[in-house]
Amino acid sequence: METLKKNFSKFLCIALLFYTVYAGLNGKVPRQAILNETVRNLYFHVTMWFSMIFLLGTSVYHSVQYLRKGDLQADTKSYAYVETGLIFALLGLVTGSLWAKFTWGDWWTNDPKLNSVAVGLLIYLAYLLVRSSLPDDQQKARISSVYNIFAFVVFMVLIWILPRMTDSLHPGNGGNPGFNSMDLDNRMRMVFYPAIIGWTMLGFWIANLRIRIKLIEQVIEEKESYES
Hints:
With 228 residues, this protein is mainly α. The protein has helices spanning 2-6, 8-26, 45-69, 72-103, 112-133, 137-161, 179-182, 186-227.
């Protein structure tokens, strides 16, 4: 019983993801022209992006905490959340590319939202390069924290605001109706919302493991430095 209480969130995460995968592949979905069965990708592609946003937003929170308090652990947490967020971003790109191939006829189209996502990911890759190029821990934390806040704001503008100001193939952008008015009926909502929760919980689980590993590595490095 104690184990269940201690690991309840992990058991819930696993249960939600099993439910998402099973219901996502076998549940009934609306039949729409062009989308057809590919609408099932809503449970995977779109939910990956939601998870990415939550993870990157959490990384910004810890960046702000570092700038306020100068605590290197806050920077470590921020970095781990960015790493995990980028994993979900790549999964979102892969699932989105598969969806584009079967609905738009190509793996990658000249769509404003796709191009904005590509630019945003390049900005975050630059964040990783900045961190790897700075040897001093405090300098690295300070510069990367400021950069991370900047990157998140720009990324949100790129993926939420700019695509709505021009023509876009994505639902809910460029004058296209969103899924709420086209395809997302109550049957799909019963899977879609649990999927967001499940994938997000998985992201935070992975990030927390990354944080624990990084903190252990830091302790080992400090011990080795002290002994030498």
